[in-house]
Amino acid sequence: MSDYILEMKSITKEFPGVKALTDVSFKVERGEIHCLIGENGAGKSTLMKVLSGVYPHGTYSGDIVFDGKVQTFGKINDSVKTGIAIIYQELALFPDLTVYENIFAGNEVKRGGIVDWNRTIVEAKRMLNKVGLNVNPETLIKELGVGKQQLVEIAKALSKDVKLLILDEPTAALNENDSENLLDLLRQLKRQGITCIMISHKLKEVISIADKATVIRDGRTICTLDAAKGEITEGVIIKNMVGREIEDIYPKRANKKFGDKVLEVRDWTAYDVKSGRNVVKNANLHVKKGEIVGIAGLMGSGRTELALSIFGNPKSYKLQGDLVVEGKSRSFKHTSDAIEAGIAYVTEDRKGDGLFLLQDIKSNVSAANLHGIARGGVINQNEEVKIANEYKKSMNVKAPSVEQIVGNLSGGNQQKVSLGKWLFVGPKLLILDEPTRGIDVGAKFEIYTIMNKLIAEGMSIIMISSELGEVLGMSDRVYVMAEGRIKGELPIEEADQEKIMQLATQ
Amino acid sequence: MNFFSEAKSLIKVNIREYGMYIALFVIMLTFSIMTDGLFMSSRNISNLLDMTGYTAVLAVGMTLVIVIRHIDLSVGFAAGFMGAIAAIMLSNWGVPVYITIPVILVLGVVIGMFNGVLVASVGIPAFVSSLAAMLIFRGALLMVTEKTGTIIVKNEHFNALGNGFIPSLGEVGGLSVLSLILGLVVIALYVYFEFANRRNKLKYEFEVVSGGIFAVKLVFVSAIIAYITWIIAGYNGFSWTVVIMLAVVVIYHFLTTKTVLGRHIYAVGSNPEAAHLSGISVKKITYIVFGSMGMLSALSGILFTARLQSATTTAGTLFELDAIAAAYVGGVSAAGGVGKVTGSIIGAIVMTSLTSGMNLLGVGISYQYMIRGGVLAAAVIFDVLTRKKRA
Predict the structure, then answer these.
(1) How far is A309 from chain B (nearest CA, A)?
(2) Is A354 within 8 Å of chain B by CB?
(3) Domain range spanning residue B118?
(4) Is residue B35 situated within a structural domain?
(5) pLDDT digit string (tens) for B217-231?
(6) What was the ipTM of the complex prediction?
(7) Fold of A4-242
(8) Smallest CA–CA distance from A402 into chain B, residue
């Protein structure tokens, strides 16, 4: 009989309208490194949030048995006390505090209610030794690179007598060297008896480090693979990850005819000053008139960054390489230049940076092209209402009137408004970033139909998507991105789920 | 839908906006009763509006600053400083009025833009940069008034801006004729624009309010304008301050509601990231809004100096807080993107009405501050609650 440190038994978690987890069972043996694998949105993070008490006991069904006892975590602190520590992808450190302050933040070394800073520093040094990080504990966090910050997070977890360490995509933001160091550290911690769950998209890493690997798809556990039995191979994992049937909800297009190149980027590199790394590396891609080009890849693979760097560079990356629009070499200083050149970008985060939620439908639709309905800087407001009504009708936006506040619409209708805003600009190239995220099947179909109509009218589309079905169903050609690079280009006839996933997880 | 249910639903939808007018009405009515009508006397109303003038123009500019999620604490002493510069130009250097005023207004724009650059390009929080500017202007005001103390302005044309009235062109039953004509013109324009607007909407086949409601609205608003005109015409007629204030409101109301620039300002306030991705230059909008704030500070300084007929060492003290309070009472939201210029004017009138009414009643200054603070808090609480209900 195996010694399980953690058993999650038939966990089901529902959100309003969505079943995020269905009857998920997940077992982890003491002292192993267990990888959790699955596509974006498969339910990995939700499962870990259930485990750590982010979703408290009572909001899900099923049992969590940790260390031989059924646990009912009411809040995150409860799981921390029993020895579970999660390190999220976005690090939760205080950049302006020192390393030792960070390690003991929320867990201060006290004597009679007063912090004992000397002992804190001594203890911090001990923890840093454990993770093999050789820095002065008085260094500020912001002065460390991401790789070292990651180690500080682990040191922080170790300071709390952690038994089970959970890492959510720990190497996503690290370069190869740092990644290798981190994996070595995990192996070392394993020898010291610390169990580890790692969520990862990089199959090479999984193969090199995992004792076991559990695959989750569509909120269900698909299988648990055992390295000792030689089951953890790329082929097996990918097959289990993508095995979903693609439903036929993608309207077909007749008479495909492609024209000249509308957009081309060559040796395109974008350096992000804030994170201090290249978010896009040496990308080469082109789009022809009348073509839908899919960009597949996992979250954080640099797809959005690529799109933004083309669309007037609002994040002020340092750019290198050539950008050619309709045969002319261009360099955009502001998004307005890109819009003028005929490019539109529909954001993946419509609530965050797409829509003006407090404003009504008509103001949102006209926002990017007010000059189109103005004379001498004065807006013709009746014209505005008329145009908004036309888009509302042609895209079937369900709202009583165009005076409706956009924040009160459903996700699908918001997406249509967001799309309408950009169609009103009259672009030649439309970049759609996750055009159907978080909207229901009916609205999805409507958006696909609109896309096909636009192509028929001579527009070109770049569609960034994490949904393989959508990429395969709608694109004429597919680029796959991983770690800021374009890892491959597939004509649609040659593309399938396995090939894309293989390129995306390299 | 019958007349009353339509009226009811209109009030329900626009409760926040109408609430302010109702509050103003209640305040005026209460004071009128408590002062036996003294409050609504021609003299008092005329005075009250003149007193509102220099904070009202600041409130208009401040509304836009708050809409784009910033604040400007320097406007009070900026106004004081620029008022003093105007006084020096007129009295010490003998510069004619028609040169002084444009120069001061341009100086205001430059000063405001400087704040805008610090906020938008350098990235300093507006609270801090404008606090620094406030200290600097305070020092600058003291410096220019150091030698002479109060600078007396003797230029009649300039002083008329703060104390003078538009020519009366004779009187009819003690009422100034030109002011009456002006009031009638305003009513005529109002009715004309309402009809034009309605006709235009019908042409596009949009929904409009029913004829009954439309007629009631026309008569009601016209009656209010007529009543105010009648009161004001009874005491020298419209003052230049009121005319300037009205002009500022009309221009800014037009800018914010009808133009591309106005829409861009509200877009930046409501979601700066989305605005940037929509091709709007957030920096440019920030410069413009702070520039306009600077210009209105200059105008406020001119009005205040003209009213006192002199520049004093303490001119402008706490103006910024009066302007901010007026804007919040008028319904701007600190979260950005929401707030009307007309609201802020009403907010400014509400605040001065309180002061004026309580002065007439002889309420002690200590209570006055507390009551005004309470009204400010109540207005914002009402705002937050009605917003929550709608969301």
Answers:
(1) 12
(2) yes
(3) 40-164+239-346
(4) no
(5) 889 889 988 988 888
(6) 0.83
(7) Rossmann fold (3.40.50)
(8) B206
